[in-house]
Structures are given as structure tokens and as C-alpha cells.
Amino acid sequence: MNKDYPLFLGSEIEQPLPTQAMFHVLPVPYEKTVSYGGGTHEGPSAILKASWQLEEWDGKSKPCVEGIYTCEPVDCSVAAEQVIENIANATAEIVGHGAMPVVLGGEHTVTYGVLKGLREAGFDDFGIVQIDAHADLREAYEGDLLSHASVMKRAVDMGIPLYQLGIRAFCEEEMAYREQFGVLYQDGDELVPNNINSITLPDDFPQKVFFTLDIDGMDPSVFPSTGTPVPGGLGWYQTLNLFESVAKQREIIGFDIMEFAPIKGFHAYDFAASMLAYKMMGIVQRNRR
Predict the structure, then answer these.
(1) For 117-272, where are the E strands, in sequence order?
(2) Where residue 14 falls among pLDDT bands split at 50, 70, 90?
(3) CB–CB of 208/251 below 8 Å?
(4) Which of 139, 141, 201, 216: disulfide with 149, CB 3.0–4.6 Å?
(5) For residues 45 and 4, what is the distance between their CA atoms, to the nearest angstrom?
(6) What are φ and ψ of residue 185, in 5° steps?
């Protein structure tokens, strides 16, 4: 066991063989292009350590009985392009074991590598549902195509259908790309004041879905522990309910939790992020199609 990256729920379960686990937790401590507060590279380690305080029973079931395998962290010490390839290779390996990637970031750029890995592993037809405060649809940010602010533009450039939830900070360029690429959305100013807890995906949205959750999509009163907090975000139960509404309609092929930046001395947020990951596993477990 890596003391900096312990096993997810390692206080309760032993590490299974990769082929005997439904969930493969992949830590990706990548941080290069954050544009406000930093610390996302410490997110995966903090979530794994806090998971030792979780109960096996998530309130409705025991996701751990499906097997949770904790992967070695992705090498993020190399150039950005190589980091993306490292993430893609690790993701494809997880899929090759017949397992589901549960990716812990790191800045949101990480998701691009995951999407590439899913494609390389044979998932040709899947959509993305994104919870976020930001649209992340800029062509580039500060000249960088591999930026956390451009990751969803890279996704739609790949031809992947996108449904955005909770967005409340975007620019005119991103609005134009939404229209150009047919991006579906329900923004924060609709979801939050109306307490909307479920969405209905259109019939032509792919049957397989990768779900990406940027911690800043949730309100700063729940998670101030992120680099770019924006008021007016989703609540705890609303976030989980929206995720479950997607899981009830489609096959979740993987999910990630991005942009978690631990606050020293405030372990409540580390624990909340680990519980969020485990509850999402539970929702997947109970709604497998």
C-alpha cells in the first residue's frame, strides 16, 4: 500500500484482484493550468485517506461487495501531452479488466485523458453528463488547448454528445460552441431555484454515459474546497439525485470527481468528497442495467 495513496476504504476491505472488482479507483494528481486557487493535485490522496473513515453500508447498500480496486496513481510528472496518454492508457487498462473507472482528480483536464482511454478501449458511442460551475468550452485558455477551461471543448471536438448541469459561469465563446455542437444544458439558475432533482435525457442521447463531476458544480457552502468556487451551486442531495436520475436511464460506464482541493485543517471536506465517490458507486451498483 502506498502511504500517500492508500486503498479506497482500505480500513474495511482488502485489495481484490483487478479482474474481481467492479470499480477501479484511479488517482490522477495532475495540476498545471488552474486559474485561481490551487491544490487539486492533493485531492486524490486526501479522498483516499478520508475513505478509511467510511462505513461499508452507504445508507442503502454495500457498494464494496462488488469489489473496489485502487490503482497506482498516474504519473503526472511528465509533459501535459504524455500525462493525457498516461491517463488514457490507465483508463483503457481498467476497461480491459471489465471494470468501471472511478477517477479522482486533479484538475478537470484529466477528464480528456479518460475520454481518450474509453475510446481506445472500444467505447465508440457514449455521451457525457457534466456537473460543473463552468462550461469548460473555451477553445483554449491562456493559449493552452490542454486546459481545465477547455476540456469539454476537446470532448465535443471528439464528437461526444454533452449534457451540462449547474453551469453558472461562462463566456460568449462558450455559448456559441454550445449552439454549434448542440450541447444540452440545464444551468444553475434553473436547477437550483426550482430545486430540480432529476433530468430526462432525450431518446437520441447515447445509451452509455460517462459522468464527470467538478466539485465546483456544487455550492461553496457544501464544498469551498475547490480552486474556482462560484455561488449558486447544487446541494448535496440534489447532486446525488441528478446523478441517480441519469443512472436510472442509461448505463454509466465510468465517472470522475475533479477539482477537489483540500483545505488544510478542514478534514470534513475530505470526508465529504470520499463519501460522494462511495455514494456514486452505490447508485451505480443499485441501478445497473
Answers:
(1) 127-131, 162-165, 184-186, 208-214, 251-258
(2) very high
(3) yes
(4) 141
(5) 6
(6) -160, 150
